[in-house]
Amino acid sequence: MHPKIRELDTLLRQVERPENGPHRTPVSTGCGPLDVVLPGRGFWRGSLVEWLGNGPGCGVGMLALWAAREACREGGALVVVDPQDHFYPPAAAAGGVDLANTIVVRGARCRQVQEAARQSEWALDQALRCPHVAAVIAWPQRLDSRVFRRWQLAVEASGCLGLLIRSAEAKREASWADVRLLVSPERTIGPAPRAMKWRLQVEVLRCRGGVQQRTVGLEIDERTGDIHATHPGGLAT
Q: Which architecture does CATH list for 21-182?
């Protein structure tokens, strides 16, 4: 990085809002190796997190659910704004999500795509503003910068943790999220097709306060749910 760019980056981080607002308390991501590299050892309540990934099996939805589960441990509801039917309750329950404390917003079936998008946007905005909601998960498609900024102000006021799952192509867009994470699948460990472990790579694209380590490798045991940092070196055949 050019010295001038590095200097500007340092100055910008110094003037960013401090992590000491009324709701700015840390909450685990649900993933120990990721907690280690983030300021405060996790996400901050009252913030937006973008999870970027492509296609089934990339793990982005699972990681977002684990973060939501941790955010709700001390109380508060989980709201899932899901007009495209991405949310699968049995899988969420298997991951420790309390379905009795979960509200799923499917949305009305509208012929007009724009009207359906406006309904989902309104529902998401209301959920992010509610002080009785601990976490919100949503799959927004296209995001207007003004709407994005409004959501950021909403979570700051309520203390909610907003978890936005988006396509990896969104990394080219401007963002008001406190944290942006790009999740990519790596190699599966074990005999196909019934491998019991799999690997993900999480790249920290943006984080308020900065991070010392930009990339985290995760190894997940599907039988136990245990998560470990991957170790360098080749995999046994």
A: 3-Layer(aba) Sandwich (3.40)
C-alpha distance from residue 47 to each of 50, 78, 162, 163 (Å): 10, 15, 6, 9
DSSP-derived letter for residue 19 is S
pTM of the model: 0.83
Characterize 69-81 residue by residue with b for buried, 16 or more Cβ atoms within 10 angstroms of its Cβ, and e for exposed: bbbbeeebbbbbb
DSSP state of 214: -
Peptide bond before residue 140 is cis, with ω within 30 degrees of 0: no
Which whole number is the average pLDDT over 129-148? 92
Q: What is the CA radius of gyration of the chain?
A: 18
Cα–Cα distance measured from residue 107 to residue 127, given in angstroms and rounded to the nearest whole number = 13
User: What are the structural domain ranges in the chain?
Assistant: 21-182
Q: What's the pLDDT band for 143 if we cut at 50, 70, 90?
A: confident
Q: Which residues contact 126 (CB under 8 A, 6 or more apart)?
A: none
Three-point CA angle 176, 216, 55, nearest 5°: 70
In the numeric block, the tokens 């102000």 are attached to: 153
Residues 6+ apart with CB under 8 A from 43: 26, 27, 29, 49, 67, 71, 161, 178, 179
- Residue 103 to residue 198: CA distance in whole angstroms: 30
**Cβ–Cβ < 8 Å for 191, 167:** no
Region of residue 31 (phi > 0: left; psi between -120 and 50: alpha; otherwise: beta): beta
